[in-house]
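Bug #77: duplicate submission created two jobs. Keeping one. Sequence:
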Amino acid sequence: MILGIQILGALFGMMMLYISYMNFKRKDFTVVEGLFWMGAWVAFIVVSFFPDIISPLVKTLSLARAMDLFIILGFMFLVASIFYCYTLLRKLQKKMEQIVRKIAIKK
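Kept job's structure:
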């Protein structure tokens, strides 16, 4: 039996799949990025409808519920995303310092 939360999850996955496709079409994503995100959202939709697919992984990791796995993966993704954004910001900051110094020296 399909639950309301499964329908909500599938609708969210379809919306994100559409947004990823539109970003790919606008050339905001490379082919690899587009395929990665579209594949991730398709997997999200499949797991929304068939959550028993991940049961072997949950048992292997000795977790009590599948939700525990999703929470752990969510935190890992957030930490990795924040670290990646931080490194990009630092690179941008260094480049801006160099540009400002060059402009200041010329004047």
